[in-house]
């Protein structure tokens, strides 16, 4: 029962992490910058994400523009996109695989060993998906930090970490933690020893063997 509860908790955490990865990928606030001119009325906040860039005026009006061409984007942004999409697809596969291996499901009840292996395999895929998202968000955050501390970057165009990065880091951590719980939820097999063999009883001597 304890392993079943750990397995269910691991699946829930990993599933929430997968949802967070989707939300982080869709959010435009991967990096943000605020600029205020001589008058506070002209203040605006700039956001850039994986798919679009947005500008929010001090009046509350938000204008977003989707990136025109994929080939015009930086290679780091394209790689971040690919890693996040891969994390989403891997998480989807992990959900189907882990559901089959859950103890509360009736699939593969005849073979408990294969059922446990499916749960472990789903946990491994969740861990890989979390690592892909973690690498993508960390790589993007490192690029934002390097540009911020670059002395040649204009002050009014220095971006900082956006909320999507923090959502991505939290989601990746949940996916890795949940996948680890799924991998550890299967009970260890008890070591089985071969049955002890009884010693053969010596047949009573009839005396015919001696001459």
TrEMBL record:
PROSITE patterns: CLAUDIN. Gene3D superfamilies: 1.20.140.150. GO terms for molecular function: structural molecule activity. It comes from the Eukaryota. Claudins function as major constituents of the tight junction complexes that regulate the permeability of epithelia. Residues 191-211 are annotated as: Disordered. It is a multi-pass membrane protein. It is found in: Cell junction, Tight junction; Cell membrane. It comes from Centropus bengalensis (lesser coucal). The keyword Iron-sulfur does not apply. One of its GO terms (cellular component) is bicellular tight junction. Belongs to the claudin family. This is Claudin. The chain crosses the membrane at residues 7-27, 79-100, 120-141, 161-184. The keyword Magnesium does not apply. The gene is Cldn1. InterPro entries: Claudin (IPR006187), Claudin1 (IPR003548), Claudin_CS (IPR017974), PMP22/EMP/MP20/Claudin (IPR004031). Keywords: Cell junction, Cell membrane, Membrane, Tight junction, Transmembrane, Transmembrane helix. Pfam families: PMP22_Claudin.
């Amino acid at each position: 029962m304890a392993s079943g509860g750990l397995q269910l908790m691991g699946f829930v955490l990993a599933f929430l992490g997968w949802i967070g990865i989707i939300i982080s990928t869709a959010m435009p606030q991967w990096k943000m910058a605020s600029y205020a001119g001589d008058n506070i009325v002209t203040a605006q906040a700039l956001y850039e994400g994986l798919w679009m860039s947005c500008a929010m005026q001090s009046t509350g009006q938000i204008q977003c523009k989707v990136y025109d061409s994929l080939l015009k984007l930086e290679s780091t942004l394209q790689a971040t996109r690919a890693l996040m999409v891969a994390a989403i697809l891997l998480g989807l596969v992990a959900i189907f695989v882990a559901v089959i291996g859950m103890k509360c499901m009736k699939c593969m009840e005849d073979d408990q060993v294969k059922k446990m292996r499916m749960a472990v395999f789903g946990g491994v895929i969740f861990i890989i998906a979390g690592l892909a998202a973690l690498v993508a968000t960390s790589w993007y955050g490192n690029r934002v930090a390097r540009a911020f501390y670059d002395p040649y970057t204009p002050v009014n165009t220095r971006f900082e970490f956006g909320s999507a990065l923090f959502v991505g880091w939290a989601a990746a951590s949940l996916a890795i933690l949940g996948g680890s719980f799924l991998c550890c939820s299967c009970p260890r097999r008890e070591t089985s020893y071969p049955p002890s063999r009884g010693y053969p009883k010596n047949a009573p001597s009839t005396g015919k063997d001696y001459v």
